[in-house]
Amino acid sequence: MVRTSLSSPEPLEGQESERVEWELQYFRTHFDGLLADLGGALNEVLGQQKSIAFWRILVGPWLHHFVLFVLAQLRPNSMVATTLPRRRVAASGEDFAASTMTENYAQLVAADAAQSPVSQSAGQRDDRLATTRAPKWQRRLKAVMKAIHWCAQGILLHKAMVIVREGYFPQSTEINIWWLSRGRIRFDRRDYGLDPDALIVDQRRRTALAARLQHATTEPGATIRRLIPLHLPRIYLEGFDSLGRYADRMFREPAAAYFTCNAHWYDEVFKHQVARSRESGARLLIGQHGGNHGIVETLLPEEFERGIADRFCTWGWREDDRTIPMPAPKLMGLFWRRRAGTEAEILFTATAAVTVDSGVDPSHPYAKSRSKDYLAWQIRFLTALSPPLRCGLRFRTLWDWAGDFWKPLLKAFPEVLIENAYECGVPFRERLAACRLYVCDHLSTTYAEALAANKPTLLFWDPEITRVRSAAQPFIDALHACGILHFNPESAAREVSKAYADVHAWWSDPGKQKAVQDFRDRYLLTDKNSSKSWAKFLIGEAGSNVGESKA
């Protein structure tokens, strides 16, 4: 393995802010061209005539992850990896590092950057995600039950005008929308059961793909193009034909519109169906799925989603004709819980981006390159809290593949309870309902759920790192002015001490309630009649598409 150096005008070591800006600009400038070349090469190798829009939906999410990860590996003193393999397409399929699907690739990257498909020598298999094989009779029974489920779902989805998958709606809301639409809107909750592990790497096809991608002569473009044939997930090359046949089984005919909040990233069957349906005029409607959309200054995942969607449904904000404010599905069910807590516990949630290597996205405020600064802020906050308050604080993290990341905090504050959300088995909303005060240091979904439920909440972050859009600035300023949002850990800790004694009085202050309500109206929209609003919108989008097709 040899370290790959980048050519000018890439910033040099130590210039982190300039490096992040350079990565953002490079990604925005070159991603579309790279996608077009990859789509053209796949058309040639597979004998297809698909549009770039088709490949953007199907392969674009993986390419988005891959390019950002390679750029992060090429950073000076990268915390993600330090080397890249200089390899040509190998002579044997066993030497390839290709993952199976986009989700599999992202899991491996998050699990351990040192053993990711890019930084490992090709051919080594990662068995950490493997599961114990069930007995034969259980597998047969599961297959029979799945077949019955597929048949029932297939009948229900037949001739649907709108298909919704991973829309984040509560099940009761789904039933209401289905009823209001007279069955024209169907919710697809099937487990497709796609298993691409049996796909064998086709060395001939990958060699042909490599030959069609070798255009760039400067770095990092040459490195990215050289690595794509090695790491393109098998489902897009070796499994492309079988993926199409699988989609045929799952969907008898195309719908007029498809809505999702998350399936457009990792659900390969759904992506294939949407991509080919859009070739014949279907609409793709994507819903916001995180509390930072529309607020933070730069968010590459949001840019990608808005680029592939005909309509992007926001949680209340609007930036152009394609962004449509709608009641937030993720926040439904919280509307009725607006009451102050009476328990003793302080609940603190930390971001996962500092310990998960998919946080290489340079647009994320807490990309892993800033992880040490992030940990220092948490230590400063806990240091400023009084010992009795620290003893009553629950520090909740999403996951920690890095293993040792939180050890300095544990060592310094053994009285603080650190909880892994994926291991404790208690949903966030249960913890939120039981706590006295909620504290969050980043823009994510959890703070949005807390404010939507009108839970006493205190926020703090570094405004130099978490930069917000000009349209959001007045709402952020209002939260800061009333004492809900703070810009350094010590100020936040002092406010916690001030609020804790009588949190209800602190939260009920008219200034705070007005700032929160204004923020909710713009960025956390909820509605008692949300089912009617969504049914009308989805049928309207599908109906306009049908009308355009007939015309």
Task: Please supply descriptive tags for the structure shown above.
Rossmann fold; six-stranded parallel sheet; disordered C terminus; 23 helices; 12 strands; alpha/beta; 551 residues; globular
Q: Pairing-aware structural class of the strands and helices?
A: alpha/beta
Q: Give the distance, in angstroms, between the N- and C-terminal Cα atoms.
A: 59 Å
- Let me know the average pLDDT: 80
Tally the helices: what do you get? Answer: 23
Cα shape: globular
Name given to the CATH homologous superfamily of the domain at 335-523: Glycogen Phosphorylase B
- Most strands sheet: 6 strands, parallel
Kindly report the CATH topology of the domain at 335-523: Rossmann fold
Lateral arrangement of strands in the main beta sheet = 2-1-3-4-5-6
CATH architecture of the domain at 335-523: 3-Layer(aba) Sandwich
CATH C-level label of the domain at 335-523: Alpha Beta
Helix content: 40-55%
* Estimated radius of gyration: 24 Å
- Runs in which pLDDT lies below 50 for 5 or more consecutive residues are 1-9, 77-96, 112-133, 335-341, 546-551
Beta-strand percentage range? 5-15%
Q: How many β-strands, per DSSP?
A: 12
Describe this structure in a few short sentences.
The longest helix is centred in the N-terminal third of the chain and has 31 residues, at 16-46. Helix content is 47%, strand content 8%. It has helices spanning 16-46, 52-58, 60-73, 102-111, 136-157, 171-180, 203-213, 221-231, 240-250, 263-266, 268-279, 300-308, 371-384, 387-391, 407-412, 421-424, 428-434, 445-452, 473-481, 489-500, 503-507, 510-523, 530-550, and strands spanning 162-164, 185-187, 257-260, 283-287, 311-314, 323-325, 346-349, 393-397, 417-420, 437-440, 457-460, 485-486.
